[in-house]
Structures are given as structure tokens and as C-alpha cells.
Amino acid sequence: MRLQILASALALSGSAAAFSDSWPLVMFSTSKFSDAPSNNHIQTRSQALEQVQDLLTSCPTDNYVLIAHEGVNAADLRRPNSMSNLHRAIGRKEIQGKFIVPEVVGESIDPPAIQDYIRRACYEQAKKVKPHFTVIKASTNEQDVIKQWEESEQWLNDSYTVLFVGTPSTKAKTAASKSEKTIYEPEFIEPLHMDLKRDVSGNAEKPGNATRDTRGLFEKYQFFTPGIFMGIIAAIVLFSLLGVGLRALASLEVSYGAFEKDMGPAAQKKQQ
């Protein structure tokens, strides 16, 4: 029955394989937790840490033990023959409060930060406590693991709270770091530029063979082209015709009286 207590809680997370970067969080205490924690079996690091701090705010017990086991995930805790010390500790009859998150996604919690939080929370409750922290390496054999658990169990008497956390495996951390460093770099084929350039290599003169042109300005450049010359002649002819016309108009001698209407008696008789 003791081994089934933790296994039944972890089985609720499903039979699927655990996330590669997830780790379990198991918290149990001789004091009953005042607020019922969330029963989400997959939580982020910030969500799980917030609930742990809420449960520790009231400083429910006199002794605190923090155990971090490297490379442990939810699948390891579901195995019947694995983590027997944890199963036995959580199955004690004096345990009143339990908080289990089978899979916490993200980096593991910072034990020194949790220890400082417990000290400050208990100090506000006029209690002076000294949390005990134990790290179980992933390469530790079974006998050493049992020995470390036995050393931690000396604090499990009367009033105590145990916080057990796992850490993502080294392979998962390496894979995550590689995936973060992998950046997609698109490859584009540069267009082939075929610019037509004038070949002036044959006409280029070498600086050593350059000679000074001493010809005159009118010999070197042609100012009056045939088109300009023909345009000037046509303009002279047109201006001469315009001058003849203006002189003909000016030579006309017509008096202003020719344009006046005769209103005398003779003209009136003709109109009648």
C-alpha cells in the first residue's frame, strides 16, 4: 500500500513518456496543508514554485528537508522497484499533507533560494529553523543513495516537511541547448549579374605615350555644323520677308476721314 500511494498519483499523468526536460516535484508534511494546491499534473516551473511558496508561507513545521535527485523524472517514480526510499517516506502514517506534480517543465528549482524563503517565512512566524539540503548525484549507486536518505531521515521526526525534486537529465539539457543554438539560416542563390561594359582597353593610351595636342580651338572642334549653318540661312530669309511685309504696311497712306460716316443732308437723302 505504501508503494502505491505515490505511484497512483503519478499514474494520473498518463502512460505517455515524460517530457525530456521535465522533472517531478513531491512535497509532503506532517502538517495538513491549509490551501488545497492545484491538481494539474503538468505545470511550468513558475507555477509549481508559486504553489510551493504558498504552502511554506505559514511555516507549518519545525524541520525542513530538501532533496534534489539528479536525472530523475516521472517515469522513474512510476516504476515499482525504483525510489523505494521516497515511497516509504511518503507512506508514513504521520503524513497529513501531500503536494505532487509529476512533471514540471523547465529548469529545476534553486534549493538555496527555497532555503532562504523558508527562513524568512518562519522568521515572520517567530520561528528559527535550519533547512537541510541533500543532493543525490545521477551517478550515485543504490547503496550510496540509501545512505544519503538515511542521513536525511534523522530530521524526519515530530514535525517536518520534505521537498523532493528531480532535475532534467544531462542529455535533455544538451539537446535543449543545441536546439536553442540552432538558428535557421536561409540559403539564397545570388543572381548572376551580366553587366555590359564598354571595352575601352584598345583605345586607352598609356601614360608614357601620351602626346599634347597643339591644334587650335577651331581646328580641334567643329562649331558650325551643316545643320546649324542651314538654320541660320533660313532664319535670315524669313526675317527679310517679315521686314518687307512690315515696310509695305507702313507705306499705306489712308486718312482718318475715310473711315468716318457722312451724316450730312445729302447722305440722308440718299438713304431715303
From TrEMBL:
GO terms for biological process: (1->6)-beta-D-glucan biosynthetic process; cell wall organization; fungal-type cell wall biogenesis. Keywords: Cell wall biogenesis/degradation, Endoplasmic reticulum, Membrane, Signal, Transmembrane, Transmembrane helix. It is a single-pass type I membrane protein. Residues 1-18 form the signal peptide. GO terms for cellular component: endoplasmic reticulum membrane. Coiled coil: none annotated. This is Protein BIG1. It comes from Fusarium pseudoanthophilum. The lineage of its organism: Eukaryota, Fungi, Dikarya, Ascomycota, Pezizomycotina.
